Amino acid sequence: MNTTEIIELTQQYIMNTYTRFPVAFVRGEGCYLFDAEGKQYLDFVAGIAVNALGHSHPAIVESICEQAKKLIHTSNLFHIQSQSELAHLLCENSFADKVFFCNSGAEANEAAVKLARRYGKINKGEDCYEVITAEKSFHGRTLKMIAATGQERIKRGFEPLPQGFLHVPLNNLDALYQAISEKTCAIMLEPIQGEGGLHRSEKEYLLKVRELCDKHQILLIFDEIQCGMGRTGKLFAYEHSQIPPDILTLAKALGTGIPIGACLATDRAAQAFQPGDHGSTFGGNFLACQVAKTFLEILIRPNFLAEVVKNAKYLHGQLIQLKSQYELIQEIRGEGLMIGIELNIEAKTIVEKALQKGLIINCVQNNVLRLVPPLVVTKEQIDEAIQIMASLFQESLQGKIP
Fold first, then answer.
1. What's 303-368's CATH class?
2. CA-to-CA distance for 91 and 340, rounded, in angstroms?
C-alpha cells in the first residue's frame, strides 16, 4: 500500500482528531524512519519522547517476541512476575515505595489525583480535594486531566469540566501561597513542561513548594510523563533538584512504544489506596511490564546516561552556535535531550519544511521547536539535524519560508 492509499483509508475510517502530515511510515531502524516509498527521515521527535531507544531496538524486539510467546494478559486478579520485578526496579532507583500500573500518561495522572484526594480526605477531611497545577501545564486528554491542564485552548468546547483544579503561574511563589487553602490536597507540577513550551520548574521554587507541602499536609506530585526515564540525562528529572515528590507519574518512554503508565508513591501516600479504590484491566500486564523492565535495565546500565549527557551537551552547544548566527532564534532552553528552540516567528512552516528535507521535529505553543530525539542519538546524527535546521533558518531569513 502506498502513502496515498494509506491516507485515503485514514480519512475514510479514522475520526478527525489529529492534524496529520502527509507521510505514512512503515519501518524504523535506530534514529531513522522510512515511509511507504522508502524515503529516510531522521527522527528528532521519537514518537513524542516515547521511542527512547529509537526504532526496532534488538533488545526490545526480543523482549516483545519472547514474552508474547509465553503470556500477554491475565488481569490483576493474579500476581504478575514482570509487574512485580518492574515495580522493584522503579522503587529501588527512586524515592518511591509503591507503584500502580496503568496504560497511559493521562491514566497515571488520574491515579495520582485520585490517590491525592483520598489521602486528603483521610488526613484533612471530606472537603480536601483541590489540586493546584501550573499555567501552561499539560496533564492529559481525559476530562479530569484537561481540567487539570493549565491551557484554556485544551479545555475549550468540553465544558462543564470536573471541578477541583486551580492554576497558578509557574515559579511564582506568591500566587501559590494565595491559592493554597484547607481544600488543597496536592500540588502537581512538571519539572520541565513539555507541551507548555519547555519551561523549567526552578530549583528554588521546588524547594519552597516542598516546604509548603510538608507544612500543610499537601502531597507533591511530579508529572514526569515526558521528562522522566532518562530524557533529561538523569533517570528522573526531579534528581536535578534533589527534591523528591510524594507521587510521580510516568508513561511515554517507559514502554518504549508499548502502552504503559505508572504512578509511583511513598508508603505514606500509597496507604490511602485500599482494594477496590482504583484499578485497571490492562494495566501492568505481562507484555508491557516485561518490555518496560528490559528498557529500564538498559537505562540504568553504567555509562548509558553519561553518554546521553555527553550527546545532549554537544547538541546544546551546536544550537547555541545556531542562535549566534540567526536572530530569529530567541532562546534555547530545556535539559538533556528535551530541548525547546523559541523563535520570533511561527514554527509550523519550519516543521513542515524540515519534514520535506528528511528531519522530523515538531512545535509547541506556536513558536517553539521541540527536539526530543531518541536517547541513543549519535554525534553524527546531531550534526545531520543541525545542518538541516541551519538551512531552514537561512531560507527563512531569505524569505523562502513564509
1. alpha beta
2. 30
